[in-house]
């Protein structure tokens, strides 16, 4: 049953296209080309962004070979410690100014 239905719609599609003139077919082709161009250009933009990211990460390879720690987002514990150290430093500086 499905094959018959599918074949029916294929035949109807061919019949419909046979009734159209060349200009309508050309316009449909142009629309399809434009759609594909937009999709392709978006993919190229994604590829360019990915390549930039790879380029940024290549700089980390020499550090890894040297045995340095990875660079990345600081942990919450480390940032909290830095804030506390900064606050202590500011308090120490303020007390020195008062003296």
Helical coverage, percent range? over 70%
Strand content: under 5%
Structural class: mainly alpha
Mean pLDDT: 85
- Name the overall outline: rod-shaped
Distance between the termini: 96 Å
Notable characteristics:
single chain; 99 residues; mainly alpha; 3 helices; rod-shaped
Question: What does this 3D model show about the protein?
Answer:
This protein has 99 residues and is mainly α. Helices cover 87% and strands 0% of the residues. It has one domain (23-98). It contains 3 helices and no strands. The N and C termini lie far apart (96 Å).
Quick structural gist:
The chain is mainly alpha-helical and 99 residues long. 87% of the residues lie in helices and 0% in strands.
Helix and strand arrangement:
Layout: H1 2-19, H2 22-66, H3 76-98
């Amino acid at each position: 049953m499905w094959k018959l239905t599918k074949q029916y719609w294929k035949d109807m599609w061919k019949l419909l296209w046979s009734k159209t003139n060349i200009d309508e077919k050309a316009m449909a082709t142009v629309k399809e080309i434009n759609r594909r161009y937009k999709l392709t250009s978006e993919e190229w933009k994604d590829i360019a962004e990915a390549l930039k990211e790879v380029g940024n990460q290549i700089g980390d390879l020499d550090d890894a070979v040297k045995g340095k720690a990875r660079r990345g987002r600081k942990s919450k514990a480390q940032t909290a410690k830095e804030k506390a150290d900064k606050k202590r430093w500011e308090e120490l500086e303020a007390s020195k100014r008062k003296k």
